[in-house]
Amino acid sequence: MLAAKPIQRGVDTDMAVANKKMKWYPGFREITLACFFILYAPLIIVMIYSFNASQSITIWGGFSLQWYEEVFFGIEAEKFKKATINSLIIAIMAAVVSTVIATAAALAMVRGKAFKGKSLTFGLINLPLMVPEIVTAVATLIFFSVIGFDRGVLSILLAHIVFCIPFAYLPISARLQGISSIYEQAGRDLYATPGETFLLILFPLMVPGILSGFLLAFIISLDDFIITNFVKGAGVETLPTAIFGAVKQGIKPNIMAISTLMLTVSIVLVSISYLISRIGRQN
Amino acid sequence: MAGMASPKGNKAEASIVDGRLGILLLPSWVVIGILLVIPVLIMFVYSFLTQDFRGGVIWTFTLEAYDQFFIDRGLFGDEPAQLEWTYILIFWRSFLQAFFAMIFCLLIGFPTAYFMATSPPRSRSFLLFLVTIPYWVNLLIRTVSMKFLIRDTGPINEWLMAFGMIDEPIRMINTAFAVQLGLFYSYLPFMVLPIYASIERYNFVLSEAAADLYTGRWTTLFKVLIPTVKPGIIAGCILVFIPSLGAFLAPDLLGGAKNFMIGSLVEEQFKGQAGDWPFGAAVSMILLTNIMIVLLFYARSQTNSAGRGH
C-alpha cells in the first residue's frame, strides 16, 4: 500500500512548484512589505533625525552627534542619568525575582501532574497580561495607598515584578516542555535526589529558556510606562516617565537621541534573547 | 531522542517529585495574589467610596461615583436626573477606535501572516523575528516616533511640501485618524503572530483538495483556509482590541483634547489634587467589566468550535 509522502516544502519537485503557485495570492507580498515598512519607518526616521546637525527638528542640516552630546552632557543630562539608573536597577531586580518565580512556576506546571488548581494557576500566571495596563495601574496605586505604602522605587519594583512574571514564564515553560524527561529519569535511576536531579541535569538544560525569560522580563520592565507613572510618586523618575515628561513640553532633538539609544538597546537585547534560544534549540 | 520518552516513565517520574512541586507555585500565587488580585478587589470597593478633596477617599459608602458616570443632575446636582452622555460617549468612542484598529490590523496583518507562513522555512523565522522587534521597542518611543512623523512640522508634511505636492501641512496630529494610526502601529504584531501560528499549522493538503475540485484560489481562501484558521484570527483580534480599549499613550500623545478615551479619562482622575479616586476606580471597574465580557465571548467561541470537532 503506497503511503502518501508528506509534502516537503521548499524542495523543488513538480508538486512543490505547483504548491507554491497555489499558495500565492496577488498583493499579499506587497501588503507584507507595506506592513514592515509601516512598522519600521517611524523608528528609522527618528534614528536618522537624531543625527540632524541643524537646530530645527525637521529641516535636515547634515550629520552630527550634537544631540547625543547634549543627552550625555547637557542641561538635562543629570535628570536623565538618574532616571536611567533607576530604570536599570528596577529592571534588573524585577527580572531576577520574576525569573526565579517564573522558573519555579514552570517546573510545577510542566513537570507536575494535573491537579485541581492547575488551569486556575495558569490563568493566574497570565492574569497580568489579561488585565488592561491602566486597570492594573489604578488598582496597584489604590492598594499602596490603602496599606500606607510609600510610593517610590520599591513600589515601582513590586508592581514590575507582577507583570514580568508571565513574560519570563513563557520562554521558560516552552523550553521546559521541549526537554524530554528521559534525563531526569536517568538521574533518578542513578539514585540522584530530586534536588541533584534539578541542579545537575534539568537546570543546565533549561538555561537558554531561563536566560530568554530573564531578558524579556528585563526589557518589559525597562519599557514600562503606564503602571510606573501611576505608582512612582512625585520624586522618582524612570527613563520612560522622564521621556514622557519631556515630550509633554515639546519634542526636542535630544529626545530623538534618547529614543534612538533606547530602541537600539531593546533591539540588541531581543536579538541576544533570540540567538540564545536558537542556540539552545540546536543543542 | 525526544520521541523515546515513555509515557509510563513520565507518570512515574512526575509522581516522585510531585508532592514538592506544589510549593513551587506558592511564590506566584503570593505575588500575583497580593499585588494584583487583591488590589483589583480593593479598587472595586473604592468605586463605592466618597471622594476626598485632596485626592484619596473617605470611607463612606455611596454610589456617587457610578451616579456621576451615568446620571446627569445638572450643574448643582438638584435637577431631575437625566442620562449622562459624556462618559458613555467616551466609552463609545474608545470602542469604535479599538474596533477599527482591530479591523485595520486584520486587513494588513492577515496577508502578512499568510505570506510569512508560506515562505520558505529559513526566511520564515527571520520574518518572524523582524515582525516582533518593533514590539520590544518601548511603546512610548514608538508613539513618540509616530507623533514626530505626522506633526504639522514633521517629515511627512515637510517632504510633501518640498516636492510641491501640497501648499499647507496636512493636519494629521490631534485627530481621530492619528489615534487610529497610533493604535494600529502599537498592536499590529499582536495580530500577525497568532494568525501566523495558525496558518503555519494549517495543512495545505486541504487547499490542494479544493484545487483538485477546481476551486478558485480566493474561494479556497475564504471557504477553506480562513474557517480553519479562525481561532488564530480571533486571538489576534482580541489581542488588538483589548489593549486598544484601555490605551493611554496613543490618545494622549496623538489625539489631543478632542479625542479623549477611557485611558485618558482614568489617568485624569489620579493626577494630583484635582483627582476623584472613587470615580477613577468606577471607570476602571466599568472598563474591566467590559473587557471580561469580551473575553467571555471569546472563551465561549473557543469551546464552541472545539465542540464542533474542528
Molecular structure report:
The complex is a heterodimer of chains A (283) and B (310). By secondary structure, chain A is mostly helical. Chain A contains twelve helices and no strands. The longest helix of chain A has 35 residues. Chain B has 310 residues and is mainly alpha-helical. Chains A and B meet through helix 1, helix 2, helix 4, helix 5 and helix 6 of A and helix 1, helix 2, helix 4, helix 5 and helix 6 of B.
Structural class of chain B: mainly alpha
Distance between the termini of chain B: 31 Å
For this entry, what is the oligomeric state of its chains?
Answer: heterodimer
Q: Mind describing the biggest β-sheet of chain B?
A: 2 strands, antiparallel
Low-confidence stretches of chain A: none
Global outline of chain B: globular
Spatial extent as radius of gyration of chain B: 25 Å
Helix content of chain A: over 70%
Sheet/helix structural class of chain A = mainly alpha
Rg of chain A over CA atoms, rounded to whole Å, is: 24 Å
Q: Based on DSSP secondary structure assignment, what is the total number of beta strands of chain A?
A: 0
How would you spell out the order of helices and strands of chain B? HHEEHEEHHHHHHHHHH
User: Greatest interface and its residue counts?
Assistant: A-B, 96 and 100 residues
**Biggest sheet of chain A, in brief?**
none
Helix-residue proportion of chain B? over 70%
Give the tally of β-strands of chain B.
4
Percent of sequence in beta strands of chain B: under 5%
**Amount of beta strand of chain A:** under 5%
Count helical runs of chain B. Answer: 13
**Average pLDDT of chain A, to the nearest integer?**
81
Ranges of chain B with pLDDT <50 over ≥5 residues? 1-17
